[in-house]
Amino acid sequence: MTDAAREKARNLACWQGPVDPVPLKGGITNVNFVVEDRRGKYVVRVGGDIPLHQVMRFNELSASRAAHAAGISPEVVHAEPGALVLRFIEGRTFAPEDVRRPENLDRVVELVRRVHRDLPRHLRGPSLVFWVFHVLRDYAASLREGNSRMVPELPRLMEIAESLEQEVGPVDLVYGHNDLLAANLIDDGNRLWLVDWDYGGFNSPLFDLANLASNNEFPPALEARMLQAYFGHPPDGGFRRRYAAMKCASLLRETMWSMISEIHSELDFDFVAYTRSNLARFERVYGEFLSL
């Protein structure tokens, strides 16, 4: 797959002169390359629609263009079926420990707020909704159809998911990134950039906040700081419970995403180990939720 993806990246119509795509490490949904031509340096994301994960490239493209217009993401230079070319950002990709630094967290929260507030003003055309509980139900059906090794676990997990959806209750609607891994944040020395809009879509702000905290393993004090920074006031007990339910759902979604990838992904990645790690984290956080 990587060789075919590299040839696709090499032969895109946008290049000025011959190019030599260099694999970019880190992605576990797409195959990514860095490419330089006579005009500059770019990132090429190669991959088609992934209906199993509800990844649709028309949606990624429109979100990427809107995010650039809002000053959040790099410019889209070229797009064609199966490939997206973005201007390369010279900077340092964050690790979870970078996100956990209080001085960086305040910057990240402000960037997330801009996604929620500013990006929809620039969005054009059809757009998806990312509702984590729908995703979980769809994953469960696909796992059964694919005879996953995890099928015996699904009744309990889906019962938990249903209870979490009831706990979250009614939500406000914003535009979410919905995949706030540290590796999707780049610091160029002056500002932060947010990249990779595979899962962009309208959602509750609680999901991005819970996803940010769970993906980067925030301790309780840092979670409190994040919520205070985003909402401008300390959350009350009822709100904290709704947020905690969404954090459980975020971890369950990452776990079931990996279960699906175990049986369908062609990428060279140990998804079984990734499932095991995320399931353990989900069980721990869900246990903490039950004790609230």
Structure description:
The protein has 292 residues and is of the alpha+beta class. Helix content is 49%, strand content 13%. It has 10 helices and 10 strands. The chain has helices at 2-10, 57-69, 96-100, 102-118, 132-145, 154-168, 205-215, 220-231, 237-264, 271-290; strands at 22-24, 31-36, 41-46, 76-80, 83-87, 92-93, 174-176, 185-187, 192-194, 201-203. The strands form 3 sheets. The chain has a 5-stranded antiparallel sheet, sandwiched between helices. The longest helix has 28 residues, at 237-264. The radius of gyration is 19 Å and the shape is globular. The mean pLDDT is 95.
Features:
about 290 residues, alpha+beta, five-stranded antiparallel sheet, three-stranded antiparallel sheet, 10 helices
Strand and helix layout:
Layout: H1 2-10, E1 22-24, E2 31-36, E3 41-46, H2 57-69, E4 76-80, E5 83-87, E6 92-93, H3 96-100, H4 102-118, H5 132-145, H6 154-168, E7 174-176, E8 185-187, E9 192-194, E10 201-203, H7 205-215, H8 220-231, H9 237-264, H10 271-290
Antiparallel strand pairs: 1-2, 2-3, 3-5, 4-5, 6-8, 7-10, 8-9
Helix pairs in contact: 4-8, 5-6, 5-9, 6-9, 7-9, 9-10
